[in-house]
Amino acid sequence: MLKNKPILRIVVWLAAIVYFVTRYGIPWYQGHKATEEVSGMYQELANDNLGWDVVEYSTQGHPIYQLVLGDSGVTTLLFGGFHGDEPGGVDLVIRLARYLSAHPGTLTQRVVIVPVLNPDALLAGTRVNANKVDINRNFPTKDWSPAYTKERYFPGPEPASEKETAIAMQLIDRWKPERIISIHSDLHVINYNGPSRELALRMARYNHYPIDDDIGYPTPGSFGTYAGEEMGIPTITLELPPYNPEEAWKNNRDALIAAINMP
Ligand SMILES: [Zn+2]
Predict the structure, then answer these.
(1) What is the mean pLDDT of each run of 10 residues along the chain (263 residues)?
(2) What spacing in Å lies between the alpha carbon of 9 and ligand 1's midpoint?
(3) Sequence spans of domains, the chain
């Protein structure tokens, strides 16, 4: 019996750890689980019947999809999945695509939905793409710089070096959108670049997020600077709060529809 005591103690500890993790979760595990779930949603796009087109393939050869809904009016280009460790945006964009497909009367304008710009990152659960580049620091802006403070912000060897960056640029050239929304997390803010304050205010009336034209730290080579400030296209970076897909959908469905339908 004495001999067995240390084993018993280990068993009790293990049981306690399993209990707490199951009951309360741990942030790393939750993040991992979210990324896995949303990766599954991305993989299902190949077989659903919404009518996704493959625009292009990522660095590792994964399809980058788009869905065009509404055939006239002002065009909104809507992106999820710039960063693979922010699965909430992908979930929200796919939910919106399903909803709008099921309720086509909701739309008065056109939307081009790109749920996962950076599938390699989503499948790996990383911020950066397969070449370890942060796409949101890789755009060819006037302030692009090879300097970076952390690995996760690596801007690449040169501006627009990455396939995913080039695909976002091509989508703008192709669709000439009047407005752009890209969805990130977890900062809980509507960040706006370029002439987009009115659009940000309109969205805030529905989701009640704060709005801001400055994220609070430098973002050289960012998509917002590229499309919003330098191309002059109203560009919103919608930063969701930490992952809670049901809540994000409830709070943002009407905000996104209002933004797309803005005359
Ligand atoms: Zn992000």
Answers:
(1) 74 87 68 90 96 97 97 95 97 98 96 98 97 98 96 97 98 98 97 96 98 90 97 98 96 98 95
(2) 43
(3) 37-261
pLDDT at 196: 96
How far apart CA 113 and CA 65 sit, in angstroms, is: 8
Cα 101 to ligand 1 centre (Å): 26
Using the mean position of ligand 1's atoms as its centre, give its distance from the Cα of residue 243 in Å: 13
CATH for 37-261, options being 3.30.1330.30, 3.90.1150.10, 3.40.109.10, 3.40.630.10: 3.40.630.10
3-state secondary structure of 149: coil
Which CA distances in Å does 178 have to 107, 116, 254? 16, 21, 19
Tokens of 57: 């393939």
